[in-house]
TrEMBL record:
Residue ranges with Acidic residues bias: 293-307
Principal location: membrane
Membrane topology value: Multi-pass membrane protein
Keyword Transmembrane helix tagged: yes
Organism for this UniProt entry: Suillus fuscotomentosus
Example of a GO cellular component annotation carried by this entry: fungal-type vacuole
Pfam families per the UniProt record, alphabetical: RTA1
Residue ranges of the TM segments: 20-38, 50-70, 90-112, 124-145, 165-189, 217-237, 257-275
Name this protein carries in UniProt: RTA1 like protein-domain-containing protein
Superkingdom assignment: Eukaryota
Origin organism lineage: Eukaryota, Fungi, Dikarya, Basidiomycota, Agaricomycotina
Places the protein is found: Membrane
PANTHER family, alphabetized: PROTEIN RTA1-RELATED (PTHR31465), SPHINGOID LONG-CHAIN BASE TRANSPORTER RSB1 (PTHR31465:SF9)
């Protein structure tokens, strides 16, 4: 037996096929491959158009990794016992959402810097440094675990250690997301009730009755929340999947992977296409938010007067 082929006889169930224990459905693989390709091309174009270079190693790179992963799954739909595509999709799909999470961390820092750093427990710069560094560590841990598990499968040995390493990386990322959401929620609550956390030079002071954020910024915040929720659901699924064992009922069920990994990450990555920070965040003009907010309030006043 060559190390490139995983025989079904080595699996707990004789009826299972290859390392997946099922054959990936071809049309589903094609669908996700097309969706991720479109999103990645749009992200690349948007990053270049708006000169948001940090969107290249984050959202765009996440799309590239998903393309790699789903291309490999498409390959596996024709050769389910071949190990090379299995290893590619294992590493690609496990680490792909990590750069996408980093994009949300950076966007939050920019929103905080724009609407009021005094309401945040951390400075905008610290948000980027702390969470992105932690994200990179999670990425490396998950990649190492995925490579270790893939190597174990190729050597016909237990992949439990690699799976546990991946589980640790995903659990750590899940923890980071919870902390991120907690700090973000605190910031928005302090902003809403005009309760600064710390002193900053030249703070943005809200007038009585003034809305904390403009309509455009509210849309971007909602999109970020949706994106984070999708990734959070995916991370919970992956945690349960790996905790259940390499041949557990979750990891061996294709529908779970398609809906709770593929679909969730698709929704997350497209949310930043449709509500791109280059469009919805006034990055060029530091006073743009105030001007836009003033226009919003004037419009609301006119609507109230008309009513």
């Amino acid at each position: 037996m060559t190390p490139s082929v995983f025989e079904a006889s080595q699996l707990p169930n004789q009826n299972r096929v290859g390392p997946y224990t099922y054959v990936p459905t071809e049309w589903i693989c094609i669908l996700f491959l097309v969706l991720y390709s479109i999103s990645t091309i749009i992200h690349l174009s948007q990053a270049l158009k708006f000169r948001l270079w940090w969107m290249l190693p984050t959202a765009t790179f996440a799309g590239v990794l998903e393309i790699l992963g789903w291309s490999a799954r498409l390959w596996s739909s024709h050769s389910p016992k071949l190990l090379t595509p299995y290893e590619m999709q294992l590493v690609g799909t496990i680490i792909a959402p990590t750069p996408l999470v980093a994009a949300n961390f950076i966007i939050l820092g920019k929103i905080i810097n724009q609407v009021g750093p005094q309401y945040s427990r951390l400075t905008p710069k610290l948000y980027t440094i702390i969470f992105c560094c932690f994200d990179v560590i999670c990425l490396i841990v998950q990649a190492f675990g995925g490579a270790s598990a893939a190597h174990a499968v190729s050597q016909d040995t237990s992949a439990a250690m690699g799976a546990n390493i991946m589980l640790g990386g995903i659990a750590a990322q899940l923890f980071a997301i919870v902390v991120y959401v907690t700090l973000a929620s605190e910031f928005f609550l302090r902003l809403k009730f005009n309760s600064p956390f710390r002193h900053v030079e030249q703070p943005r002071v809200l007038e009585k009755g003034q809305s904390a954020v403009s309509k455009n910024l509210r849309v971007l915040i909602c999109a970020m929340a949706f994106c984070t929720l999708c990734i959070f659901i995916r991370s919970i699924y992956r945690t349960v999947e790996l905790a259940g064992g390499w041949f557990g009922p979750v990891i061996t069920t294709q529908h779970y992977f398609d809906w709770l990994d593929g679909a969730m990450v698709t929704l997350a990555i497209y949310s930043l296409n449709f509500f791109h920070p280059g469009i919805w965040l006034n990055k060029e003009n530091p006073t743009g938010h105030d001007l836009e907010q003033a226009a919003d309030e004037e419009e609301e006043a006119e609507e109230e007067a008309a009513a």
